[in-house]
Amino acid sequence: MTRTEVIAQIAIDQSEKKRKKFSPYIVTVGLLPLILLAWWLATTVTKSVSPILLPTPESVVAAFPRVLSAMGFGDQVIRTLLEIAGGFVLGATVGFFLGVLLSSSNRLRTAYLPFLSALEAIPTVILAPLIIAWIGFGVEGKILQAAIACFYAVFITTLSGLGLAEPSAINLMRSLKASRWQVMTKVRIPTALPVIFGGLQLGATTAIIGAIVSEFIGSTGGLGYLMIRYRGGYDTAAYWVIIFLFLVIGLVVYLGIWYAERKIVFWRRTEITRPDLEKQ
Amino acid sequence: MTATTTTMPPTPRASAPLVARESLWSRIRRGSLWISITTVAIMILLWEVIPQIGIVNRILFPTFSDTILGFGQLVSGGYWWEDLGKTLYAVAIAWVIGVTFGFVMGVALGISPFIRTAITPYAIAVQALPKVVLAPLLIGWLGFGSESKIALAVIICFFPVWIDTMVGLALPNANEFKLMQSLKASRWQVFTKLQLPSAVPMIMVGVKHALLLAFTGVLVAEILSASDGGLGKLAKEFASQLNMSLTYAVVLVVVIIAVALVSLADVVERRVVFWSEESRARKR
Amino acid sequence: MTTMTQTAPLVRAEGVTKRFGSGEKEMVALSGLNLEVQEGEFLSLLGPSGCGKSTALNIMGGLLSATEGTITFSGEPMIEPRREIGMMFQQAVMFPWRTTLDNVLLPVEIFGEKKKDYIAKADELLGMVGIKDFRDSYPWQLSGGMQQRAALCRVLLHDPKLLLLDEPFGALDEFTREAMNQELLRLQAYSGSTAVLVTHNITEAVFMSDRIAVMSARPGRLVGILEVPFDRPRTPDLQTTNDFVKLVAEARRMLELQ
Ligand SMILES: Nc1ncnc2c1ncn2[C@@H]1O[C@H](COP(=O)(O)OP(=O)(O)OP(=O)(O)O)[C@@H](O)[C@H]1O
Ligand SMILES: [Mg+2]
Questions:
Q1: CA B188, CA B182: separation in Å to the nearest integer?
Q2: Which of C44, C54, C218, C221 gets mutated to test ligand 1 (max ligand atoms within 8 A of its CB)?
Q3: Which of A158, C9, C61, C63 has the most CB atoms in a 10 Å sphere around its CB?
Q4: Which of B13, B113, B216 is nearest residue A10 as measured by Cβ atoms?
């Protein structure tokens, strides 16, 4: 069991009945103004938080049009998005195919898995200075950094997902004399998809982090570069505007992959919610 | 499913629980060990030869022997011990704080399904925000010392512990809750005798994940704020001086530490949740 | 040799032994099995759990290879699965990402033939087992019995000469199981194929088969063959006749004797 649907599966009929009339989402929505109020109280009213860290809400709101309409802002956004997308596609593709390769040979798997598992442990950011020294401050280096950051998640989820097919399904395919390719495309990959999507989601998140860190360390453009510039000019409000932008980018990517999963792996959720299947 | 619960989009992780690791003996017998050894030998050979025959620039891509020399230079240099200590110190402190904070938050917000559901959208937002964006701000605010490193690492590493605790507390199924209710267990008893033990395997995974994230956070802060020292600073300095064999050596040290930390965490995890593997094996 | 046997057996197993593992962990699952399956007959493999029925069936289907002994299909040695053999397992194995129809059409797809040419046949089969209305539904929308009906259609789609059925209805409830057995007999008669059914249910074996191969507990070996002379088509009433009850008792005696 993954931690995926767990939030939904909690002791359902336990304390829920008593509270049916009162939706938790009322609390969700109600929390937002409270958070904003706390922010306002902490900064504008009591001035108890350093403006270097957290500016007042008013100043952040005021900074939005300034930042968004600054010269060349669109180019920086596009550049960062390109780095993230490029790194994600590159890292995920390599991870996927390596996962497929290793899953199709027991020998290769046992030979290489120990090394590849070590990759799980490595904080890929340590490579950032190296990559910059190798290929400079341009877009390519950021793409490479993002790709390295997201590779492992896709690789390992692909590898373990491809092993999930039921032996009976494999036997059925063998009794039909299906080729390895057919077993892979018609059984193993569809079975692995839910797990692979988990890897894609994690990989996308880490690709974003890889691109940002690399931009922070040294870049000729991009949102990370802008942030360093705004901070250098003590324009914390503008800095926070870009934080919000990254929140939006992160959410769009995260929920986008989630939505794609729901559409592509359509059978999974329906299967889970079918009550009589849960007995087994 | 009742209408009041929600499906949180998956908070995935990359670990390989389903990929069995094989014993050394079976690897030797099946010949895969030879593949490993040969591959490593070929890699080292290429690493050594390619820069030497000038396909790539040897200054930027030092050979294997250059790297080993750099490693010796680094280790015998003496000055780097302080950097190593600073990094490990920051990782340890940040990890302890992050795990504590994440656990407390997970318990506080995870004990009731109602609160859990209510804050799920916020959890998703925290998950989706690349938290490293805060690094330059924290450095600006807390200065270049170890405080900013620790702060960044805590912010990055508390998250999986929080989520995994929350999710783990939700793992027991309705029947298990019913059993506890039928025994008239108090809320505290339900928590300590049912929810917490069920959550431990999950929490351990989060704790392990947090260790890696704390390391990442510290390294990012060190690379960004060069003055306090640490392995991240060393790597950045050497790289900017184009002293690549020493950069390689630092990366090598980081890799060794990371692999050692994870192996250690694996051992601890297996001890603590000894029943988990057993019951998993039984279910098969 | 004076007479050529007019009906050469479709499957012939000679001294088939299967061992799993080696050294101390060695396990003899099947020991010296001799068995002939005649063309067109319905044969059951009856035996206690773990006696190697599935192993024997998998060897006949080419999914496993025998440790010792030979096995031939139409006179040719079995070394790998053949497309003239259709197999059905205890699990229906319906892929949740395919509709019922697409699941039924899977063999055609694997064989690289045109799916279009088989849709009519698939519909006919689905109609015969009464789930035509569900052709465009997904497996999770079907009950266990319906899924097995679809699996039955799938195995019959490409007219296999030999059906190897490994407790195909074992996971179903008693009522559905009986209905499915009827269905199976009807379709087998209709397609004229040979069938080998693995079961540990004595009544089921007697009701379904022309011959029953009774096997002993581990290591599995053949105890004897029981001829079942009843006419076809068989109806459920048969099960209450004296002859039927006698045969069931006979089979039980053979099982307990070993
Ligand atoms: N792949 C395998 N590796 C090792 N042992 C096996 C394997 N497959 C089967 N066996 C063993 O061989 C014996 C016979 O197994 P088999 O599945 O053929 O029994 P069966 O008669 O079909 O039993 P059941 O009625 O429970 O299905 C069993 O003891 C089983 O443990
Ligand atoms: Mg069996």
A1: 15
A2: C54
A3: A158
A4: B113
Q: For residue range B74-121, list pLDDT tens digits in order.
A: 888 877 888 999 999 999 999 999 999 999 999 998 888 888 888 888
Q: How far is the CA of C44 from the centre of ligand 2 (A)?
A: 13
What parts of chain A have a pLDDT lower than 70? 1-21, 269-280
Check pLDDT > 60 for residue B26. yes
**C91 and A176 in contact by Cβ < 8 A?**
no
Q: Does B224 touch chain A (CB under 8 A)?
A: yes
Which residues pair with residue C226 across a beta bridge? C212
Domain residue spans of chain B: 80-283
How many angstroms away from the CA of C81 is the closest CA of chain A? 5
CA distance B126 to B148: 20
Please report the pLDDT score of residue C258 as a whole number.
57
Whether domain A63-270 has CATH 3.40.50.2300: no
Residue B50, pLDDT above cutoff 90: no
All structural domains of chain A with their residue ranges: 63-270
Of residues C60, C103, C100, the one with CA closest to residue C81? C60
What mean pLDDT is reported for chain B?
A: 83
pLDDT band at residue B215, thresholds of 50, 70 and 90?
very high
Q: What is the pLDDT of residues C25-35, one digit of tens each?
A: 888 888 888 99
Q: Is A243 on the interface with B (CB under 8 A)?
A: yes
- The distance of A32 to chain B (nearest Cα, Å) reads 9
What is the H or E stretch that residue A94 is in? helix A73-103
At the fourth CATH level, which superfamily is domain B80-283?
MetI-like (1.10.3720.10)
Pocket of ligand 1 (CB under 6 A): C 20-21, 27, 29, 47, 49-55, 200, 218
Token representation of residue C238: 């048969």
**Tens-place pLDDT, residues B218-266:** 999 999 986 678 899 999 999 989 899 999 999 999 999 999 998 888 8
Higher pLDDT, B272 or C5: B272
Distance CA B23, CA B36 (A): 14
